[in-house]
Write a structure and sequence with these properties.
Number of helices: 17
Oligomer: single chain
Structural class: alpha/beta
Strand content: 15-25%
Number of strands: 14
Helix content: 25-40%
Length: about 475
C-alpha cells in the first residue's frame, strides 16, 4: 500500500532488484544490451535483434542512456553493433520518420557499470543489511547519471571535473542531491573524507543554473538541532534548491551503531516539525512553494496529521516518502465519497463467494490503509506485518519480507482473499529476502487463501478487486 518509506533508503528500496545493475568494473564494457526490438521499427529494418549490443552511437561509446538520448536525437543515426553470436562488429545506419522511436529497448539506464559510492556514511542502509543478502542489494550506487535519469539521490563526491562539465553542458536538470549537513566537520563525521567535494560540485552546478532536489537524512545527535538549522539556512540561501526532503534515520538490527530514531520519540519528531515550519512559510511567501518537506514518518511519529496536499508542491519527492500518506488519505476519502457503491459491490461479491477480505501492510501504514480496507462499505481487515527480517525501526510496506508474511499469518487461511502489496516485489518478482512472487503465492494458496497482488493506490486496489470478483462498474 502507498505509504512512507524510510528516506535514507527509499530510492534504493524501489530499485533494489535491478538484476542487470553492476558496479563499475564488474564486467567488460560491450555497450548497451538490446533486450527487445519493436517489429517493423527502424532498428528491426536494420536487422538489429535482441541479445546484440549497441557499442557506439554517432561515433561515441554508448555508456548510458544520456549518451543515447543526446546522440540519437536526429532522424538518422550511425551505430556500431556487436553480435555476440559470432563476435562480429558491424556498422549500422538507422533512419526514422519525424517523431518515430528507434524501436530499441535496452537492459538498463547505464551500460558501462554503475558508479558506486566512495563515502563512508554512518547511516548507510546498505551496510546494515543481513549478511546473507543478495549481492545486488549491497551495491552502493552514487551515480550522477541515475540521479538525472531515475531520480536517485547522490552525494556528488565521486564526480570528476569532466562529469561536472557534462551535467552543465547537457543541462541535466534537475539533479537529486544528498546534502545531509553543511558544516564541514559534521559532514566529515557523517559522510567521510570526501565530503568537501560534494558541496564544491553542488555549488558549481547551482551557479550554472542546474535545479536541485535535495535531501537530508536526519540522525539524532549527529546533524539535528543547530546543525539542521545551519543546513536549512544554507538551502534557504540557494534558490536553485527547489525542494529539500528531510527524512529520518532508518536502521536495522544488523548493526550496532544505532538503537533509536524519531520513530520512537514523539517529542523529538514534533520538535523537528516545529523547527522546519518557519522555513516552509518563508519559502511559500517568496516563491509560492514550501520547498522544505518533511517525510511522512515525522508526522506518523509525532502523531500529527500530514499537511494538506497543496503543501507538497506537486509532490516532487513522492518516492522519497514525502506526501504518500496525504495522497493515500485524499484518494481514499475521494473514493469513499464518490465510489461507495463500488466498495459495496465488491463487498457483496466477496460475500457471495464466501470470502473475507484481508490486506497486508507494514506497521507504519496500518491505520492509513485501514481507512480504505476497513471502511464499513468494504468491511475488510488490515494485517500489519512486523519486519523481523530487518528489525531495527524498519516498518514500511515496501520492505515487507516473505518469511515474515509466512511466519505471522495463520496456517489456516481458508475463505480469505489476501491482498499483497505489489511494492514488496521487485521487477523480477523477488522479495527482499529472496522469495519469488509465485512461490509465496503458492505457499499462501496451500494454506487455503486466495492471494492477489495489488498496486499501492486505493483506486488501483479496488480495480484489482473488481476485476478478480467480476464486479461490473
Amino acid at each position: 500500500m502507498a505509504e512512507p518509506t524510510i528516506g535514507a533508503y527509499a530510492k534504493a528500496a524501489s530499485d533494489y532488484g535491478s538484476q542487470s545493475r553492476r558496479a563499475r568494473g564488474d564486467e567488460g564494457f560491450k555497450g548497451a544490451l538490446v533486450t527487445a526490438v519493436r517489429p517493423e521499427s527502424p532498428a528491426d529494418d536494420a536487422g538489429i535483434e535482441a541479445g546484440m549490443y549497441v557499442a557506439r552511437v554517432a561515433g561515441k561509446p554508448l555508456t548510458d542512456m544520456i549518451v543515447w538520448l543526446w546522440e540519437a536525437d536526429e532522424d538518422e543515426v550511425e551505430l556500431v553493433v556487436l553480435d555476440p553470436a559470432d563476435g562480429s562488429v558491424n556498422p549500422c545506419a538507422l533512419e526514422r520518420y519525424p517523431g518515430e522511436d528507434w524501436g530499441l529497448t535496452f537492459d538498463d539506464a547505464v551500460f558501462d557499470g554503475m558508479r558506486t559510492c566512495v563515502n563512508a556514511c554512518v547511516f548507510c542502509f546498505m551496510t546494515m543489511l543481513p549478511p546473507e543478502s543478495r549481492k545486488t542489494l549491497t551495491i552502493r550506487d552514487d551515480d550522477y547519471r541515475l540521479s538525472f535519469l531515475q531520480g536517485n539521490f547522490v552525494t556528488l563526491t565521486n564526480m570528476s571535473d569532466a562529469d561536472v562539465a557534462e551535467v552543465i553542458e547537457k543541462n541535466l536538470s534537475p539533479m537529486n542531491v544528498s546534502i545531509h549537513a553543511i558544516t564541514p566537520e559534521v559532514r566529515r563525521r557523517l559522510i567521510g573524507r570526501n565530503a568537501p567535494r560534494g558541496i564544491e560540485v553542488l555549488e558549481r552546478l547551482m551557479a550554472a543554473g542546474i535545479e536541485i532536489h535535495a535531501q537530508i537524512v536526519l540522525c539524532p545527535g549527529l546533524n539535528d538541532g543547530a546543525e539542521l538549522t545551519a543546513t536549512l539556512d544554507y538551502c534557504e540561501r540557494h534558490e536553485q534548491i527547489t525542494s529539500l526532503g528531510i527524512v529520518p534515520l532508518g536502521f536495522t538490527k544488523h548493526q550496532k551503531r544505532f538503537t533509536s530514531s524519531y520513530s520512537d520519540d514523539e517529542s523529538a519528531a514534533r520538535a523537528v516539525v516545529r523547527q522546519v515550519r518557519p522555513y516552509q512559510d518563508r519559502a511559500h511567501e517568496r516563491f509560492g512553494r514550501h520547498t522544505f518537506q518533511l517525510s511522512d514518518e515525522f508526522f506518523l511519529a509525532a502523531r500529527l496529521d500530514p499537511p494538506p496536499a497543496d503543501f507538497y508542491d506537486g509532490y516532487p519527492q513522492f518516492y522519497d516518502g514525502i506526501g504518500m500518506i496525504r495522497s493515500y488519505m485524499d484518494e481514499t476519502d475521494e473514493l469513499l465519497s464518490t465510489g461507495e457503491g463500488r466498495l459495496a459491490a465488491c463487498a457483496a461479491a466477496l460475500g457471495r463467494e464466501g470470502l473475507a477480505l484481508q490486506a497486508l501492510s507494514g506497521t507504519a501504514a496500518r491505520d492509513t490503509v485501514a481507512r480504505l480496507i476497513e471502511a464499513p462499505a468494504l468491511g475488510g481487515r488490515v494485517v500489519a506485518i512486523e519486519n523481523r527480517y530487518f528489525g531495527g525501526n524498519v516498518d514500511v510496506t515496501g520492505l515487507i519480507c516473505a518469511e515474515d508474511v509466512l511466519a505471522q499469518l495463520p496456517d489456516e487461511l481458508a475463505g480469505i482473499m489476501l491482498i499483497l502489496p505489489s511494492i514488496m516485489f521487485n521487477a523480477a518478482g523477488l522479495t527482499l529476502d529472496g522469495y519469488h512472487r509465485d512461490d509465496l503465492l503458492q505457499r499462501l494458496e496451500q494454506r487455503g487463501a486466495r492471494p492477489r497482488i495489488a498496486p499501492t493506490t486505493p483506486s488501483e486496489l479496488i480495480e484489482v478487486l473488481e476485476q478478480d470478483l467480476g464486479v461490473a462498474r
